[in-house]
Amino acid sequence: MNKEIKKIIIASSCIAVAIVFAAVVHLVGGQPLGKIISPMHIPVFICGLILGWKYGLLVGILTPLVSHMFRGIPPILPTGLGMCLELGTYGFISGLISEKVRFSNKSLLNIYLALIIGMLVGKIVYGLYCTIYFPLNSIPWSFKLFITSLFVEPFIGIIIQLYSIPFVVYGIKKSGILDIYN
Questions:
Q1: Contact by Cβ (8 Å): 68, 80
Q2: Of 3, 38, 59, 92, which shows the fewest CB atoms inside 10 Å?
Q3: CB-based contacts of 94-100 (< 8 A; 24+ apart in sequence)
Q4: Using CA atoms, how far apart are residues 99 and 96, in angstroms rounded to an integer?
Q5: Sorting pLDDT into bands at 50, 70 and 90, what band is 179?
Q6: SS3 82
Q7: For the chain, what is the radius of gyration of the CA atoms?
Q8: Distance (Å, rounded) from C-alpha 36 to C-alpha 174?
């Protein structure tokens, strides 16, 4: 099978997994648990780190949109658009760094650094979106809300992401099971 077709299938699977994971989390704990765990973030990061920036960006943007089409969650404004920007940035930055930059010869360290930088840049992009969108629509927004909504509330999710994603990606890359690399 053509490697690009495999990548498209894997990217599509990441979108499906993100939507199903989010549906299960919201079914179990509602929106508060969804904010805490951030279930859509994990498959987007994995996609970017495995398939690179093009697929990471695409999956990051499409995942909230497809979820909205099938489940009505997240609402397009303001949450959905912000998530498209945030998740698209996650996939783009982590994929770009994973493809182009080598911080060391240890691939697990490279994965961690790509993940952490992608996470920080994505949260900054989301914060910039909120800084522009919210005041224009009379929605309260401040630096304190930025820190609370993007770092404090999802702290458990951030820990889950930092613990699980690097090992999943490292295992997939080392195993060769996907057969999509050079």
A1: yes
A2: 3
A3: 94/45, 94/48, 94/49, 94/56, 94/118, 94/119, 95/47, 95/48, 95/49, 95/51, 95/52, 95/53, 95/54, 95/55, 95/56, 95/57, 96/52, 96/53, 98/48, 98/49, 98/52, 99/52, 99/53
A4: 5
A5: low
A6: helix
A7: 16
A8: 31
The residue type found at 94 is S
Closest alpha carbon to 45 in 5, 8, 17, 3: 17
- Record the tokens describing residue 106, joined without a space: 């240890």
- Contacts of 33 by beta carbon, 8 Å cutoff, 6+ apart: 25, 26
What's CA 77's distance to the chain center, in Å? 19
CB distance 87 to 122 below 8 Å:
yes
Instruction: Report pLDDT for 105.
Output: 59
CA distance 14 to 140: 33
What are 23's two structure tokens?
A: 């549906």
pLDDT digits (tens, 9 = 90+) for 55-110: 999 999 999 999 999 999 999 999 999 999 999 999 999 999 998 876 665 688 89
